[in-house]
Amino acid sequence: MSLYSERHxxxxxxxxxxxxxEDAYALLLNLCSRYRKNxxxxxxxxxxxxxxxxxxxxxxxxxxxxxxHFRIPNLFRNEAGLIVPPQIMDNYDQFALLDLIEFYxxxxxxxxEDWNNQKYKNYRYVIVHNTARVFKTFQNEVNDLFTEIGxxxxxxxxxxxxxxxxxxxxxxxIDNEIxxxxxxxxxxxxxxxxxxxxxxxxxxxxxxxxxxxxxFERLKSYYKDLDKRRSVIKILEAMSHKNAKFYEMxxxxxxxxxxxxxxFRIRHHERNQQDITDPNYYDYLFSRCLSLVTLAIKYLxxxxxxxx
Length: 308
Hints:
The structure is a single chain. By secondary structure, this protein is mainly alpha-helical. It is built from 11 helices and 6 strands. It has 2 domains: about 5-155, no CATH class; about 165-300. The protein has helices spanning about 5, 20-35, 60-70, 95-105, 135-150, 175-180, 185-200, 200-220, 230-240, 245-265, 280-295, and strands at about 45-50, 55-60, 110-115, 125-130, 155, 160-165. A hairpin with an 8-residue loop joins β3 (about 110-115) and β4 (about 125-130). It is elongated, with a radius of gyration of 26 Å. The protein starts with a helix and ends in a 12-residue tail after the last helix.
């Protein structure tokens, strides 16, 4: 929703961030709470009304709380053990909140609620349907809130949360390009690398760099009928269209990335390797390696199907 000051350029641009503040946490937790009864299929409770002598289904708060305690142990709770938003100076795990949102996304179902009797209103009951059209409403609300508060995350149609990449490292077409790679092993490594890079948890960024370097190393041996160096030469010749200056540029990049992979703690963990101390370096390294690999795969011949 665009407000007056936004439409007329009177508002400062939102600050985009991966950090979920206490206020943002509270808004997202409240959003989830509004959909709590949509989890009734997973947490049903059979109640009995002594006045009417009728049994009915409602949401089981107690079982829900216990399940979440074991399923998402790092979700913030107060001293009484209740799930609440953190306050300033509280230590909290913001990724546990993203886990909770994914849990809701994967388990919400369409429901109806009603009074047993419109006149006396003895109790309200829940009817659970075998559909999940409500997911789209939940998804839109979550993503709208992410946008409103400047959080660089998105709840996807796969019901998982991915981080939006600040500087456009991953093009929208990347999934389609990777799917066209003929060799199963290389394609699988690239898929894993991109999926890890999109994962919100910071530790996944390190894993994504390891995977993209694994893909780079496998790329160099793509042509099985050639040794590794000659396989690289064949790739370089295709990439450069046998233009000497472009060949030299791409060859230099292959050499540099190989040296980086050996010198820094990316794929190997020997004591003499340099640790990567700034998490922002992972973005740079991933972007650099991915750029070269995705360019190279455009020129790969379908040697798998040729039987080589």
